[in-house]
Predict the structure.
Amino acid sequence: MIQLSYLDYLAVEGKSRLHRLSPKKKIIGMAVVLLFIVTMRNLPGFLLLYALLLAIFFLSRIPLKIFSLTFYPLIFAVLFIFISGFQIGFILLIFLKVLCGSTGVVLLLATTPYPSIFRILGKVLPSLFVTALFLTYRSIFILLNVLEETQSALYLRGGLQWRHPWRSLTNISNAFGHLIIKGIDASEKMYESMLIRGFKNKIHYRGE
Amino acid sequence: MSHIHLPDGVLPVWLWVSGYLGAILVGAILFRFVKEENLSRRLPLLGMMAAAMILGASVEIVPIAYHINLTVISGILLGPSLIFLATLVVNVILALFGHGGITVIGLNTLILSIEGIVGYFLFRFLWRVFKRLTPAIFIATFLALFSSTLAMIGVVSLGASHYEELIHQEGKGIFEFHLSKEKENVSGEAQEKSEVNLKRFIAIVLPLGFIGWVLEGVITVLIVRYIHRLRPDLLKLEREPA
């Protein structure tokens, strides 16, 4: 999840043609990719779609270390193989669906800041839900800072050691407990500052 | 493990559309119980708990494809209505991160919110019974995760005929061509092998899930005990033993 802040940085600072394209067009593009994934059933078609997405990925000058993120959902797709009785055609189809979906999504995120996506969603979804998305997005960065500090403190004090699994587990859990308490304190402060700024169940994002 | 990490296009359209409709319906019912003022005040907390769930989901235990959800602890702190919105937000952000398909967000929300809602009610009930934090939290978490895994298996099973269709499609691609050619000579055993095998899926998911339920149960107990030591007011426990 640490990559989330890096993705956000890439989306904001990137200068490729895809970065400059309007978020609305990119979301429509992602919807088209999804439509293909849902309706298409032949392997050559998926190979072509994947090749196209890869070409866009590399043309957009997105760093290779982000590319590894597209393989992450394969961990779970492996479980799905067992349903098929190891049919090679089915397995390839599932894997290509996973790769096309994840490459499309990572491509969208690495070239479009999250708030811009939420703003487009705000035009079709209830404001309450979009406000919750904005607040969660902001909270991820607050908690990431707390988590990084706590993680460093644990490492420096020898709190995470494979030789002592129970103690390590207790320390990790305490770190999450600490994260939750800090998060709740921060949420109370956030609510007070939002009230001062005239918050009424909706966050207005101007995209600046 | 408990929610579906399926890609888009695997589940039949009727199933994931029903998931979205079900999520809208359940959300509408649950939000009738929340006062607007209370909702506005608790939105930042909802955002924080959703963020904590997302950070928990990023810690992957690769050999068993499991990550901690923190849904039960979030359910206890947020209550049954807000945990539903929190799980929806979590699933949207995780889907945007390539962690599960976009079309299955509705189904994932329903399944994941089972954990939060069942966990909340079970914890309240078990706290009254045991008056002790550790068994109440552990059993509530374990059973909540067990219920949501069963729901996940149920959803995957509902798509069985669609997977059959995907496996046996003919003449729609180079690999399918070979399969359809061979199909004329398949024996009964081979035919059986090529059919959708949900039993094998369940046989893999349940033991792996069991490890995950115990692990999450232990972690949730430790987290709640930590919170109880520092901020017992957050747990809103009634009639605490002396």
Remarks:
- The first helix of chain B runs from residue 13 to 31.
- Chain B is about 70% helix and 0% strand.
- The CA atoms of residues 10 and 163 of chain B lie 7 Å apart.
